[in-house]
Amino acid sequence: MTEQTNESTLTLEQMAPVTGGRLIDFMRLRHIALALTIVLTLASLASIAIRGLNLGVDFTGGTVMEVTYPDSKNPDIVRELLKNNGYEAVVQHFGSSRELLIRLPPPEAGDDSAEAKAALSNKVLGILQAETAEARLNRVEFVGPQVGEELREQGGLAILLALGGILIYVALRFEYRFAVGAVVATIHDVIVVVGFFSFTHIEFDLTVLAAVLAVIGYSLNDTIVVFDRERENFRLMRTETPYEVMNISINQTLSRTLMTSFTTLIVVTALYVFGSEVISGFALALIIGILIGTYSSIYVASNLLLMMGITKEALIPPPKDNAELDAIP
User: Fold this and answer.
1) Using one digit for the tens of pLDDT, what is the confidence trace for 236-264?
2) Which of 211, 207, 158, 217 is nearest to 186 (CA)?
3) Which one, 77, 81, 111, 134, has least CB within 10 Å?
């Protein structure tokens, strides 16, 4: 009874410390958010199915060359030069404005011999040196199509294992409806991030895959914080409806959510703006993932709990009967 009395006398400032005692009715927009979630998910899946992903050399195989110029070099000029000579290449700065990273797809003939690889890199280097004699080749690497296929399979397996581990962890720590909400929210985040790269056709390589896995962890962490407060409030607030408990819990965790998301966004935005093009895809995936992960913690995970009919009775431990109490010394 003490817990109930204390909880019933909570002030609005204690329930919503960020908004100065004014509770924001997040759940009021749950139906609009549900429609938006469905649209984003279906649009992302449609883009992935129709447009596909612009997979990088890491997944498709090909040749990677690192070339150094005596002065600053515009990647667009080198890209156009190679295109005019029959080579579709991805060219970006690497380290400094004098160093370029050139990614070439594997030859259509499928010749994986060492001679063919050396001939391809020598031809490309010859084209570059014909335009700028001082261009110097620092290194050349070749990723075979079989290796790229294995990386695709292992990357997909890593995402599935991460989602499976999340389902087991949340189910053991909370309740099965919380586990379903967490996994659905995380799957939603992954689909939207991958769908964004499919729609924009930005190159999807191993660094972007690493960012997607990081988004899974980030989204889950944010969801667990909200879930933990909701579970605690469900056990303490005996008179409030599940709708009210959800709103109060989200308001109480709002400061933590905003500060964490904002500070993380500052870092990854700085990486995207000031970093090299090599990590731009990684930073962009994190930016999209942080924004959509913050949204899903409120309007996907918590909204799904209400849709599945979460109740106080499912979270409050059942009282011990008299026989059990008498048996206690």
Assistant:
1) 877 778 888 888 888 888 888 888 888 98
2) 217
3) 134
pLDDT tens for each residue of 87-111: 878 787 777 778 888 888 776 655 5
295: how many CB neighbours lie within 10 A of its CB? 21
- CB burial of 101-126 (b: ≥16 within 10 Å; e: otherwise) equals bbbbbbeeeeeeeeeebeebbeebbe
- CB 43, CB 195: distance < 8 Å: yes
Residues belonging to the chain: 329
What residue segments make up the domains of the chain, in order of their start?
2-53+148-307, 62-143
Judge whether 2-53+148-307 and 62-143 match in fold. Answer: no
* Long-range contacts, stretch 24-30, CB < 8 angstroms, 24+ apart: 24/247, 24/250, 24/251, 24/254, 25/247, 26/246, 26/247, 26/250, 26/251, 26/298, 26/299, 26/302, 27/243, 27/246, 27/247, 27/250, 27/302, 27/303, 27/306, 29/299, 30/299, 30/303, 30/306
User: Spelled out in words, what is the top-level CATH class assigned to the domain 62-143?
Assistant: alpha beta
φ/ψ of 94, rounded to 5, equals: -140, 100
Q: What is the pLDDT of residue 318?
A: 55
**CATH number listed for the domain at residues 2-53+148-307:** 1.20.1640.10
